[in-house]
Amino acid sequence: MRKKSVIREWVESILIALILAMFIRTFIVQAFKIPTGSMRTTILEGDLILVNKFIYGAKIPFTNLRLPSFAKLKRGDVVVFIYPEDNKKDFIKRLVALPGETVEIKNGTIYINDHPLLDPAFSQRFYYNRGIFSGEGQKITVPAGNYFVLGDNSASSRDSRYWGFVPWDNILGKAMLIYWPLQRIRIVK
């Protein structure tokens, strides 16, 4: 029996590692670096996070198909998505409203179907009426297959108030862990 050359063994090992890494990044988990303060104080600029891609059903590259999901999107999830106005950019925001719900921002409070959001993820923040989708007294109904998202730092966030809704097809995954810097390691809530 012939022995493999050392170079061939190294090349095979590297190829297997690359294929495995691409599979994991595409379908299971992906790392992202946060560039802005729009999610302050939940996630800070410069934080490195891991995003769970399989939870909502990872997108299959070069198709319009997704793998089966393990959970449904829910209000309060911090999601990473393809920015609707530039498909080369990924954004991160908190999911506020689901398809068919009516959103209104009144006196700094978010109302869904005329009821204030009392969950601490929302009630401990002030939301500003900015942009064309959140004028004072303006109620917006989220279309089918879309979501309304806001940054936790409402004063410094370009979000659904400005550009509208995030289509389901643009959702990449759920932020699950800040892994860098070391003193900020935590689960994203």
Topology overview:
Blueprint: H1 6-27, E1 29-33, E2 48-52, E3 78-82, E4 90-97, E5 102-106, E6 109-112, E7 115-116, H2 120-123, E8 140-141, E9 146-150, H3 160-163, E10 166-167, E11 171-180, E12 186-187
Antiparallel strand pairs: 1-2, 2-11, 3-4, 3-11, 4-9, 5-6, 5-8, 6-7, 9-10, 11-12
Question: Keyphrases for this structure?
Answer:
single chain, 189 residues, alpha+beta, Umud Fragment, subunit A, eight-stranded antiparallel beta sheet, four-stranded antiparallel beta sheet, 16% helix, 29% strand
Gyration radius (Cα, Å) is 20 Å
Largest sheet: 8 strands, antiparallel
Helix content: 10-25%
Task: Please give the oligomerization state of what you see.
Answer: single chain
Query: What structural class is derived from the secondary structure elements?
Result: alpha+beta
The CATH topology turns out to be Umud Fragment, subunit A
| Number of structural domains | 1
The beta-strand count equals 12
Q: Please state roughly what percent of the residues sit in beta strands, choosing from under 5%, 5-15%, 15-25%, 25-35%, 35-45% or over 45%.
A: 25-35%
Spatial separation of the terminal alpha carbons = 56 Å
